[in-house]
Amino acid sequence: MLAQVPQPLHYAEGLLQSLVGLAQAKNAENLLSELVEATADLTGTALSQLYLLDSTHTRLTLTAEWLDGLLQPQAIDSLPSDYDGEQLLQYCLCQNRVLSLNELDSSLHQTEFLPVTQQPWRSLLCMPIVDKQQHVSGLLLCASHQVQDLNAFADSISLLGNFGVNQLQLMQRQHSPANDTVQYEQLQPPCASGYGLIGTSQAMCDVYQLIGKVLHSPVSVLITGETGTGKELVAHAIHNCGSRRSMNFVVQNCASLPEHLLESELFGYRKGAFTGADRDHKGLLDSADGGTLFLDEIGDMPLSLQAKLLRVLQEGEVRPLGCNDTHKVDVRIIAATHYNLHSQVEKGLFREDLLYRLSHFPIELPALRERNEDILILARYFLEKTCTFLQRDPCSWSEDTLAALVQYSFPGNVRQLKGLVERAVLLCEGDVLLPEHFNLNRESSAETATNLRQHMEHVERNFLLDSLRKNRGNQSKAARALGLPRRTLLYRMERLSINPDDV
């Protein structure tokens, strides 16, 4: 039998008194204590817990706990950013939804976050708490030993939690970090990665901070950086640790398909839209509905498709090929490129309005040579993974090898370091990795770093010129020989400054 909810008048008076108590709290410790005590009193439950996210959204910490009428010593245990193993907390935080269970069953639900008591916990209410900017800041929950309809308290407890967290942020702005009013923040590590990214350098800490700011926000993200810096890993982190993590994460490389195929893949098509369209095909934008679409190498997207993508970002509407009607989609777009898009805009190769729409929240990834202190951390990580994959005994490092790695500029960034380590393990016949296993050319590394992109464009330009000359300058025949649409060939000729005189 469900426990009864208090009379409305008495309950309203209790809620008002609780809000007054929070407003009069003198410091953060008193505020947090008042919040969990008031939650337990208003709901009539034996347990109330407050979890707060740190400033980078990489840790969720149990900050205050009220149990059986007593404030418990402040906990410092925290969960990683994916809250793995705590599915109830994970659901509530990442989906930004209230969770109410009237018949909590430890055999069905993971309840390790609840304290062990003589009586089992039978009911649970857990809700996200948000700040004035509507960003999720943590969780407030209560639990009862009785079967109780705690969902009846959801609105008022949400009001209490949101008010409390806003008061806490106000106190933080008014006091210095040295003051005990922000004691709970001192429990957090100064820089925790927790996003599947590796590195403790200041450059990577700045990236973690930016990722944390955008996790629970629907804005578009533009990730820039050199080839091999881990742009797709950052996109995965934003999706997997954010509010859309339970939905699809769809990836498309805009440079891997010719224009007409890329359009049909993104927007889908209806039966009969073109020759060979013998059935309806759902596009990637529809596949990612509710989730995230990662558009890698967005700088290589043709201008005509850029205009259609802009409409998706502005209106949230998709029109498949061969269809006159549009339909709504809820997709978060994360784009990545190694180009300087502002320079591309000046050259007429990228739409300025699309650039501004995509770059609501830009994240620039540092090159590996700009985070030297992470090189050895990454190298040891890749070594361990490679040895495990190859099922061979672990290898150690010689001092000369470590010194050579630190001095190398890595034009291919983290991707190149990973490949070098994997190759070295295959070459190593003993148990020590030596400099000769890596064959690092330190003298030319800096020059290669600055000329890598120019070299790749030079190779591509010569390849196109060769095809055009073989076909006596006939662009249609050259495009067919290259397996490209003629419009794509013209676009690449313009990008690489190929004129008829060159042919």
- The number of helical elements comes to 18
Please estimate the helix content: 40-55%
* CATH class category name of the largest domain: Alpha Beta
What is the CA-CA span between the terminal residues? 86 Å
> Which regions are unreliable across 5 or more consecutive residues at pLDDT < 50?
1-5, 176-193, 442-450
Round the mean pLDDT to the nearest integer and report it: 82
Q: State the fourth-level CATH superfamily of the largest domain.
A: GAF domain
The percentage of residues in β strands lies in 5-15%
Class by SSE composition: alpha/beta
- What's the number of domains? 4
- The gross shape turns out to be globular
The radius of gyration over CA amounts to 28 Å
The total beta strand count reads 16
CATH architecture of the largest domain: 2-Layer Sandwich
**Biggest beta sheet summary:** 7 strands, antiparallel
Q: CATH topology of the largest domain, which one?
A: Beta-Lactamase
Task: Explain what this protein looks like in three dimensions.
This protein has four domains: 8-186, Beta-Lactamase (2-Layer Sandwich); 202-364, Rossmann fold; 368-440, Helicase, Ruva Protein, domain 3, CATH 1.10.8.60; 444-502, Homeodomain-like (Arc Repressor Mutant, subunit A). It is of the alpha/beta class. It has 18 helices and 16 strands. The protein has helices at residues 8-23, 28-43, 87-95, 154-174, 183-186, 202-214, 231-240, 259-267, 284-287, 303-315, 341-346, 352-358, 375-390, 399-407, 413-427, 442-470, 475-482, 486-495; strands at 47-53, 59-67, 70-71, 78-80, 99-101, 123-130, 136-144, 221-224, 249-253, 292-296, 317-318, 327-328, 332-337, 361-364, 396-397, 432-433. The relative contact order is 0.08. The strands form four sheets. Strands 1, 2, 3, 4, 5, 6 and 7 form a seven-stranded antiparallel sheet that branches. The protein has a five-stranded parallel sheet with strand order 9-10-13-8-14.
